Amino acid sequence: MIFGAVLALLAAMCNALAAGLQQRASQLVVARRRLSEAPGGALTTRYLPVLRQVRWLLRHPVWWLGWVFNTLGTLVQAGALHFGSVAQVQPLLTTQLVFDLPLSARNARRRPLLQDWLSAVAICIGVVVFLAVPGAAPTRGAADRRAVLVALVASAAVVVLLIVLAAGRSGTVRAAVIGVAAGICNANTAVLIKLTTTDLADRGIAATAVDWPGYSVAIGTTLGVLLAQQAYAAGSLAVAVAAMTVTNPVVSTLLGRLTFDVPATGGVGALAALAVSLLLMSVGAVGLAHSPTVRGSPSPATSSTAKPSSSSR
User: Fold this and answer.
1) Which residue has the higher pLDDT, 183 or 107?
2) What φ, ψ does residue 266 adopt, rounded to 5°?
3) Residues 6+ apart with CB under 8 A from 164
């Protein structure tokens, strides 16, 4: 359990680096208004405009650097899921925003605010409760493949519905709805990674190569990345990050308990601890996602020094 938790925290740190780099690349592409130059039909423009953005993202070295960290984070996450359960590992990924805080503060050249520290403390307390209370974070349980398939179909239907609902909405609403869809994809991908690592350990490479979970991981990961990029570029980065960060652990916890044969331990106390820990992590994640430090807003001193130079031009 401890080793799985450590790997989950390491994966969160890799994801923080990846998200920062890919957010930057996505914003740079949108800021240059290159999307208007890309070909595409009405269906692509309305429901998945990110497909028109991929062409230039693949040419951006910053996006590729983010992809490297994202891949590394996925591999470390796979290791964490091998030693722990989906319901244990995924909630710990909310600590990504805690790792984002010092990186963003350095880039924005500003000190973290009191709100930032309180949000980070809320996430850390939530993690401590999550790991300390027996039964709150189940560490084992065999997968029920039929239940996994049902969950995948239901999740796919919800994601398609969210994409349709997000079409034509304002930037903030679109970022939130697509962010939720990306979080659902990431949660389901974690379940598939767990199945794949179990196949590799128990049945070997040959059997895993002809089984469906491994190929589903590739599809789920690709869709999750595309939806995340679309949420980043929708207009409200803070809302997108908050929606993804909160949705992933909540859906992962449900999937981990519904699609795996998890032994019931801890009773009502464990469920209460789980609810409190998820609430603390969610509140902290929303607080950090809306922080001007994490969002990369320049400090007041930087903004005031920049104004004379722009007016002098």
Assistant:
1) 183
2) 90, -25
3) 47
**Quick count: other Cβ atoms within 10 Å of Cβ 270?**
17
Residues 6+ positions from 122 with CB-CB distance below 8 Å: 280, 281, 283, 284, 287
Asked if residue 233 has pLDDT above 80, the reply is: no
Both tokens of 285, joined, read 């994640």
Q: Which two tokens stand for residue 262?
A: 């998890």
pLDDT score for 113: 80
- Token pair of 14 as six digits: 């890799």
For residue 288, the model assigns a pLDDT of 78
User: Alpha helices, DSSP H only, in the chain?
Assistant: 2-31, 42-47, 50-57, 61-83, 86-92, 96-108, 114-132, 145-166, 171-203, 205-209, 212-232, 237-258, 267-289, 300-312
Cβ 286 vs Cβ 246: under 8 Å:
yes
The C-alpha atoms of residue 81 and residue 132 are separated, in whole angstroms, by: 19
User: Where would I find the beta strands (DSSP E) of the chain?
Assistant: 142-143, 260-261
Tokens 């999937």 correspond to what residue? Answer: 255
For the range 155-163, what are the long-range contacts, defined as Cβ-Cβ under 8 Å and sequence gap of 24 or more?
155/184, 155/185, 155/187, 155/188, 155/251, 158/184, 159/184, 159/185, 159/223, 159/227, 163/47, 163/48, 163/227
Distance (Å, whole) CA 113 – CA 92:
23
Q: Is there a contact between 162 and 180 (Cβ–Cβ < 8 Å)? A: yes
Give the C-alpha separation, 45 to 308, whole Å. 39
pLDDT class for 21, splitting at 50, 70, 90? confident
**8 A C-beta contact, residue 218 and residue 59:** no
Give CA–CA dist 83/34, Å, rounded.
44
Higher pLDDT, 296 or 207: 207
